[in-house]
Specification:
Radius of gyration: 44 Å
Structural class: mainly alpha
Low-confidence stretches: none
Distance between the termini: 144 Å
Oligomer: single chain
Number of helices: 1
Order of helices and strands: H
Length: 105
C-alpha cells in the first residue's frame, strides 16, 4: 500500500512539474501572440500610410509628366522660332554664293 501511495505521489509531482512547464510555455506563446498582433496592427497602419504616399507620388509624377510635355512643346516652338530668325538673318547661307573678296588682294 505504501508503495502505491509513493508511486501516486511521484506521478502527481511529475504531473505538477509538467503542468508548470506547460503553463510557462503557454505564457510565452500568449506573449508572442500579443506582440505579433501588435506588430500586425502597426504594419496595417504603416501600409495605409504607404498607400497614401504612393497615391501622392503618382499624382506628382502625373503632374511632372504633364509639365515635361508642356516644356517640350515650348522648346519645339522656341527652336522653330530660332530657326526662322536665323534663316531671315542669313538668307544667303548655303545658296552657293561666293563671299566678297578683300579689296587688298
Amino acid at each position: 500500500m505504501k508503495q502505491i501511495i509513493k508511486k501516486c505521489k511521484d506521478e502527481l509531482a511529475s504531473i505538477k512539474a509538467e503542468l508548470e512547464k506547460i503553463k510557462g510555455e503557454k505564457k510565452s506563446v500568449t506573449d508572442d501572440y500579443k506582440a505579433l498582433k501588435s506588430q500586425i496592427v502597426t504594419m496595417d497602419a504603416d501600409m495605409a500610410k504607404l498607400g497614401e504616399i504612393i497615391k501622392t507620388n503618382n499624382t506628382e509624377l502625373s503632374n511632372l509628366r504633364a509639365e515635361i510635355e508642356q516644356l517640350q512643346t515650348q522648346l519645339k516652338d522656341c527652336n522653330a522660332k530660332l530657326k526662322s530668325v536665323e534663316s531671315t538673318e542669313n538668307p544667303e547661307e548655303g545658296d552657293g554664293a561666293e563671299e566678297p573678296t578683300d579689296p587688298g588682294n
